[in-house]
Amino acid sequence: MSDDDAAAWKRVRAGDELALAELFDRHEARLFRHARRLLSTREDAKDAVTVAFFELWRRRESVRLVDGSPLPWLLNTVSHAARNLERAGRRYRTLLTRTPAASHHETPVLSDESGVLAALKRLPAREQSVIVLTVLEGYPDRAAAETLGIPVGTVKSRLARAKAKLRDEMTAMEASWA
């Protein structure tokens, strides 16, 4: 990516916390936008970005860079953190519904008007990661393969499967509008 990322990354690998702060300042807004697409609350999106940078620091010895940048790795980690936060939120809401209360208040349900986001969330995690990196973030198949640690052919087949599933869901959704 940029020489700035490569230089900061060398310093991060050496244990320089200020270099991590530089990477955070450089990529936080993009990662936050990505997290907001996947999560329903702003606070959860902030948490997902925080988790990604914490993991970047913790795993700095084994992070796979693409073109000298940790950004694709961070995007993938934000996606995983978002799924974990969504799962934890569902468990928490389920627990709340099972807990007796003096007055029961319904938990507001946030809906995705278009259904596209809901369809994306229903994809298996492996296909979701490929869609996020190649379609939403625009990385080439080779970069996605490097980030995910899989062959380029696997990226292409997962992408084709995911697009077919999304296309079928969108077709069904459009038919229900008629």
Automatic annotation (TrEMBL):
Q: Which UniProt keywords apply?
A: DNA-binding, Sigma factor, Transcription, Transcription regulation
Record domain RNA polymerase sigma-70 region: where: 23-90
Statement: the UniProt record of this protein carries the keyword 4Fe-4S? no
Q: Which InterPro entries match?
A: RNA_pol_sigma-70-like (IPR039425), RNA_pol_sigma-70_dom (IPR014284), RNA_pol_sigma70_r2 (IPR007627), RNA_pol_sigma70_r4_t2 (IPR013249), RNA_pol_sigma_r2 (IPR013325), RNA_pol_sigma_r3/r4-like (IPR013324), WH-like_DNA-bd_sf (IPR036388)
Q: Where is each RNA polymerase sigma factor 70 region 4 type domain found?
A: 116-166
Does the keyword Transcription belong to this entry?
Answer: yes
Q: What is this protein called?
A: Sigma-70 family RNA polymerase sigma factor
| Originating organism | Microbacterium lacus
